[in-house]
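Below: protein 1.
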Amino acid sequence: MANRKAVVNNQECVACGCCIKVCPRNAISIPKGIYATINKELCIGCGQCAKECPASVISLEVKNEKEKRMV
């Protein structure tokens, strides 16, 4: 899990908040109610947000080397 990160498609996110409810690390917020953003330092890549998203706009990607060192 530590090698993955969640990424939101900001163009398609409807800011419903479903992802916030299931994130075990409180890594997701919806600033200004526009779209969800994910704190890369807190995200553990568990995928719960992607599974819960009714719009299917959250995906998991492999972290790059710089992001892996931040953990």
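Below: protein 2.
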Amino acid sequence: MITSGEGKHKIWLERFEIGQDTVYILGGGEKPHIGGAVICEPGKNPQTISLKNHHDYEVLELVAKSACKKFKKTVVAVGGIHIDNASKKDIEIILKNCKELVSCI
């Protein structure tokens, strides 16, 4: 597991190998949850599932696309990040932390 940030802005990313494929679970904030899922296969457009009123798919797509491109295999990214009444600044910090995690893939 890798992490980025502190307190309510702390994000974590865990990787599991399933045969030749990989699953990443992303969570963080005050209430980690499942807000979406993304499946990415080499040479294909990602398939995205997003729960209503959730924007977690945006960072999940970054995770899935980056890992798929780097390792040239099927990747699933699932999870969610939640901060109650998140401000624009909170969202900026969360996005920065997520990008930091993606750079570590």
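Helices lie at 57-71, 88-103.
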